Structure formats: C-alpha cells, structure tokens
Amino acid sequence: MTIQHLPEAGGPFRLGRHVEHDPRSLAFAHGVLPKSAIKSVEWARRIPILDQGSLGSCTGNAGTGVLGTDSAGRTASTTVTISAGGAAASHGVFVAGTYILDEAFAVSLYKLATILDGVSGTYPPTDTGSTGLGVAKALKALGLAGSYTHAFSIAALNSAVQSGAVLLGIVWPQSAFDTANDGRILIDKTSPIAGGHELELCKYDASSGEYWVPNSWNSAWGDKGWGYFTTADLTWLLSQQGDVTVPALTAAPAPAPVPADPDVAMALATRDWLTAKGL
After folding, report:
1. What would the pLDDT profile of 32-86 be if each residue is shown by its tens digit?
2. Contacts of the segment 223-228: beta carbons below 8 A, 24+ positions apart
3. pTM score, two decimals?
C-alpha cells in the first residue's frame, strides 16, 4: 500500500486527495475494451455543482457526484436511500433514511471515507483528506455500490467511462487552479504540485480527446463549475500516481406498490365482466 501525504490547500480552493494504492487492487483491475468500442459519452448529472469550501472533502464530493449521475441502465436521482443495514455499517455516521445529494451528504460521505481509508486520522476532528479507495469503501458499506474496480491508464479509463461516471484521483499542479476560456484545465508540468484532488469524470469526447469534470469548488470556477483535461494532460496526470476508481452502483429500490382500494377493484372487475358479456 502506498500512502502519500499531499498538502491539503492551495490557491483559493481546498484539496484533500491522498494516494492510496493497495496492491490487492490489481486483482480488481477494470477491463480494457477494444478501441472500436470506445465512443463519446456524456452521462447526465442530476445534481448541481457542490462547494466543499474550506474542507478537504473532495473525495466525498466526487462520490456524491457519481451517485447523482446517470450510468448504463441507471437513471440517477437527487436523493439516495440508506437502509438499516447500510446505516449499521456506517460507524454511526448515517442513520437509515433518504438523503438529498447535497454538500451535507458529501461531508458525511467524506467522514465515513476517513474512517475506512488507510490515511491516519479521521474527520472530525481532523480534516485529514481521504482517497478514492476510501470513498469507494464507504459507498459499498452504505449499500450504494456493490463493488468497485480500479484503472490506472487512459485505455482503462476510456473503457470504464463507457458504463458511467468514475472517480478520478490526481495530483494538482498550481497551474490547474486556473482554466482557459473554454474550460480547459491548465496543466503545466513544471508547476509546483499544490496537493491532490479527487473529481467525478462523467463526459468524454472521443473526437476532441476532452475529459470533462464537474468540480466541487462552486459554479464560479471554470466553465460554470466544469472543466476539462486534454488526453495528453490526463495521460501525464495518471502517470503521476493517478488512479481511477469505478464503483458499480446499486439500483435504487423500486417503490412499494400502493395497495388498491378493494371496493374500487371490485367495481372495475364487475364493469369489465359486464362489458365482456355485452350487458
């Protein structure tokens, strides 16, 4: 396991992602599709841009974003429901019930991630930061994900995003606090590393090679809270102990059917019988 402590602040925005690469993760590597199967994808995000403010909770924010974003065979919602079993596995962070996918939920998810990750300390009281692996463990503990896989290359990332949004963990150069007018995140390889950051990645344009991320630094950052990496820049970032965590989210439980009024049901059945008899 590799744990690298990175500074948690830089520029006007907070960071908070650590590197946590467990060798056991290699047994759960995400498969790589043939190039012919890689298409442009844009998974709809159903929740607004969040704002982690002065807290190093980017992992919890990224995990909340993935929950609020569509994936193959799953339409996201603005809420999630945590069962009694999920609450029991949350070390007292959550109680059973329905939660809005907002900043408060993201902070709670971050709290649980700091308990389950390999980073020393927990929040509260210490704003330790966390990892993509930590938040994936939190999602699984809550019953919101059944499993998760890992990717460390552009080819594996391209394959993973075909099925839904992913968690992207990277170092954050000082230059990356700024974006170009079109939303491109400015990656200068000679710029000092300000820390580590975790983001949701939910849009890939195969024709332009752009990877779009909604950031958790409010909608004033970038292009209304969004920015993109070029293929060359993201390839380099992944080579700098970057990682992609791919949670397999569980489908929301179907709502219980509303019991029919027995009198209404009998009246409808009688009407249908009389119609069938021509009466």
Report:
1. 899 999 999 999 999 999 999 999 999 999 999 999 999 999 999 999 999 999 9
2. 223/179, 223/182, 223/183, 224/49, 225/49, 226/49, 226/183, 227/179, 227/183, 227/184, 227/185, 228/183, 228/184, 228/185, 228/203
3. 0.87
Question: What's the CA gap between 177 and 162, in Å, rounded?
Answer: 28
Q: Residue 103 and residue 261: Cα distance in Å, rounded?
A: 41
Place of tokens 């090679």: 209
Strand partners, 209: none
**Spatial contact of 229 and 237, defined as CB atoms under 8 Å apart:** yes
Q: pLDDT by residue (tens digit) across 117-131? A: 999 999 999 999 999
Residues 6+ apart with CB under 8 A from 88: none
Nearest to 221 by CA among 185, 171, 168: 185
Copy the structure tokens of residue 223: 């292009």
Backbone angles phi, psi at 173, to 5 degrees: -65, 155
Sign of dihedral through CA atoms 52, 151, 183, 15?
Answer: positive
Q: Could you give the CA distance from residue 147 to residue 150 in angstroms, rounded to a whole number? A: 11
Strands 243-249 and 226-230: unpaired
